[in-house]
Write a structure and sequence with these properties.
Layout: E1 11-18, E2 23-30, H1 41-58, E3 65-70
Antiparallel strand pairs: 1-2, 1-3
Length: 79
């Protein structure tokens, strides 16, 4: 049996919780944005920039980000 390949993704998914209680799942952030010593802090800036663009296009402002966490990786088991 050949060895399993490690899958590299060019995006990291985040779950975002806003101050008004709403939640946005699987917000994608490019892996290149997170390649530094700051950890996941640049992801907040990237998602806030996306929210500003969405607000400008829709005319409805988004609430401030309360918390940000990486989306758990789902493991598919073969039965």
């Amino acid at each position: 049996m050949p060895p399993k390949r490690k899958i590299l993704s060019s995006f990291i998914s985040f779950d975002v919780t806003y101050t008004d209680g709403t939640r946005s799942s699987n917000r994608r952030v490019p892996y290149t944005e997170l390649s530094g010593l700051d950890g996941d802090a640049p992801a907040r800036d990237f998602i806030e920039a996306q929210d500003r663009e969405i607000s400008a296009a829709s005319g409805r402002p988004r609430a401030d980000i309360k918390s940000l966490a990486r989306t758990p990786v789902r493991v598919v088991s073969k039965v």
